[in-house]
User: What shape does this take?
Amino acid sequence: MGMMTAESKETDRLIDMLRRSALLEELQQEALDRGELQDRLGVSRATCHRHTRTLDEFGVIERVDGRFQLTDAGRLLTDALTTFKRDAGSALRLAPVLDAVKDAPVEIDAEAFADATVTSAERGDPYSPVARFVTLMQETETLYGFDVDGIAPLYMEEIKDRIVSGMKTEDLVLPEAAKNALDEYPEKCMEACMSGYLTIQLHDCLPFGLAVFDDRVGIGVCEPDARQLRVFVDTGSQEVREWAEAVYEVYESEAVLMEEFTHQEFHEAMERGGLELTM
Assistant: This one.
């Protein structure tokens, strides 16, 4: 077995710190004795002793009057570990979106999403990405994009109400999504269309959901072979907005306008565009 390099030793040390980051984060709040640490972390006395001994040897915690507290180096380390865990978690949640946009007709650097808000469907809260979209929709005066209905199909009433109340909306939709909306919500579709604030166009290939609000841009990715939103990412980045505008223009140039949101107009638009349902 070869001798460990200084770099590999440093890597192992950082891994040790990450494994014990929960303990450091507890001490970031307040000094604690060993029993309190055991209770907070839910570990045995032996495990707690091993963790505190290791961290003490690294010089990031110290024991004063029977209570453990962070050293100056420990406070810096804990801040760094907290930031790393947050950013790494965001990067992992962002992965489905980066994978979806990589084949978009306009390229964008992943770094443009560095400050994005990432909302993922979680066990026990599968609709949190949809809720995030609805929150942004309620705050905007204009909305355009594509497959927006795919982002929030269960919130047709809220979307319709915002459109009727004056939210100017342009949406490129998949033919099957338009047909489903007409079949399931005919009155809502008609009311939104008759308001004069809604423009619907059909497109037969939309790889992700795009929503351009007044101040932010949102991207939604659904579960494979399902219409349930998996992750919704939104950002105020000007670079992402410019990219979104360019991508929208490409897809809009290929879309077919529905002059009215009716079954008849739907079929006429399908014929004009030579589109086919894939349902």
